Amino acid sequence: MKFTEEHEWLRVEGDLVVVGITEHAAEQLGDIVFVELPEEGTTVSKDDEIVVIESVKAASDILAPLDGEIVEVNEALPDNPGRVNEDPLGEAWFFKMKVEDMSALDDLMDEAAYKDFIG
Amino acid sequence: MSELERTALYDLHVELGARMVPFAGYEMPVQYAPGVLKEHLHCRAAAGLFDVSHMGQVVLRPRSGAAGEAARALESLVPVDLLGLKPGRQRYAMFTDDAGGVLDDLMVARRDGDLFLVVNAACKAGDIAHLRAHLSDSCEVVELTDRALLAVQGPGAEAALAAHAPGVAAMRFMDAAAFDSAFGPLWVSRSGYTGEDGFELSVPAAGAEALARAILADPAVRPIGLGARDSLRLEAGLCLYGADIDTTTTPVEADLGWAIGKARRAGGAREGGFPGAARILRELDAGPARRRVGLRPGTRAPMRAGTPLFAAQTGGAPVGQVTSGAFGPSVGAPVSMGYVPVDLAAEGVTLWGEVRGKRLPAEVSALPFRASTYKR
């Protein structure tokens, strides 16, 4: 699993990359009450704001971690946003993307580096 | 920036795992480990303990010794009937300014020889200066800085508190009374700001932590932070000073006209006689131009404070704006309050709130969003 400084995790699944947010991020955000996902088929560039999540406290964006295309979104989340707090690393993934350059994953943090990053 | 103040319960909050944040000059618990959503639901299902010691506790002591003198004096600053307030009863009130705006909202309880006021933390210095500037001839204005203020709210509140002050069980909503306790003399009102039955307890600071621990020893009671306090009061349709009411809103616009008793209205025994009376009495008679309403967003997206409101899905200028908005845990959907022109203020009217550049529907809805459970 790889991690971004925006507290996303990325897991390679065949030729796709599954993206979610980390436990640390979910805990910091507090109870998630709203999730708005991008449309499947959307072409995205790194750092595009593609998902909106709102917790009881505030709204935040999830950025595209890499260049690519959104091929699948987790349709279960908008109706059950609380899953993000319950299972952020598992069931509550946000989207799967086809990444233009898989080698770009190598530049991201591994778990040990992410742990250092969040202190 | 000046140092943040701490309440008598600071160490207990930290011990209980609270996330502490700056609020109105104090370090206050915004949430504990369960988080805002679970704390909110727990308060409605069982009971919650809140530290509201940041709020101001003020005694208005009449120099003549007759409590009626303090009531008469305070009536010159609020549009509420206080001479009609019986000993042992409390009323909601607001300080108004000359333009009819709201300087702060407060609770006023009549005791045998004086009035006991609870004012907002962010406004208390201004309120006390205001009271002293206008009422010093007739009253001594005493800020109680050596007392904490706790709230116990929810269906389990009565049992949790009655274990330590049995007399509270006989109180009704907005009753206020003194009790002796193992934690020092308590001043208790059967009130709160969650829409739930419950109590607010003024306790000597030295006894506050022991009282809080004793109440928390009841398994029904959990500590609740400011985050859930805000969502609870929003579902209950109660105004947050600085968000839903301020100097730019009148009590009538804020739909708080119910707090203005007959005696203070046109034709009443003590008509007017408070700051901004001309405008407020006119609005009571002819109706205000705009009014605070409840709003139920049509999607799951919360419409938060500042969201502009439109009459149509496209075009036009904003007709109003949201002043409080969040996900309502007990409602199970987002809820908001805001000001709209009276011709758009009827229940069922569809308005449009602009969220992240998109206009989303919101229906004008009755307040409160969730019926109160006060013991009347």
TrEMBL record, chain A:
Residues 16-98 form the Lipoyl-binding domain. Gene3D superfamilies: 2.40.50.100. Keywords: Lipoyl. The modification N6-lipoyllysine is found at residue 57. InterPro entries: 2-oxoA_DH_lipoyl-BS (IPR003016), Biotin_lipoyl (IPR000089), GCV_H (IPR002930), GCV_H/Fam206 (IPR033753), GCV_H_sub (IPR017453), Single_hybrid_motif (IPR011053). The keyword Cytoplasm does not apply. It holds the Pfam family GCV_H. Its cofactor is (R)-lipoate. The keyword Membrane does not apply. Binds 1 lipoyl cofactor covalently. NCBIfam families: gcvH, PRK01202.1. The glycine cleavage system catalyzes the degradation of glycine. The H protein shuttles the methylamine group of glycine from the P protein to the T protein. Belongs to the GcvH family. The glycine cleavage system is composed of four proteins: P, T, L and H. This is Glycine cleavage system H protein. It comes from Rhodovulum iodosum. The gene is gcvH.
TrEMBL record, chain B:
It comes from Rhodovulum iodosum. It is an enzyme of class 2 (transferase). PANTHER family: AMINOMETHYLTRANSFERASE, AMINOMETHYLTRANSFERASE, MITOCHONDRIAL. Pfam families: GCV_T (PF01571), GCV_T_C (PF08669). Residues 9-262 form the GCVT N-terminal domain. Coiled coil: none annotated. This is aminomethyltransferase. It catalyses: N(6)-[(R)-S(8)-aminomethyldihydrolipoyl]-L-lysyl-[protein] + (6S)-5,6,7,8-tetrahydrofolate = N(6)-[(R)-dihydrolipoyl]-L-lysyl-[protein] + (6R)-5,10-methylene-5,6,7,8-tetrahydrofolate + NH4(+). The lineage of its organism: Bacteria, Pseudomonadati, Pseudomonadota, Alphaproteobacteria, Rhodobacterales. InterPro entries: GcvT, GcvT/YgfZ/DmdA, GcvT/YgfZ_C, GcvT_C, GCVT_N, TrmE/GcvT-like. Keywords: Aminotransferase, Transferase. Residues 290-369 form the Aminomethyltransferase C-terminal domain. Its EC number is 2.1.2.10. It comes from the Bacteria. SUPFAM superfamilies: Aminomethyltransferase beta-barrel domain, Folate-binding domain. Belongs to the GcvT family.
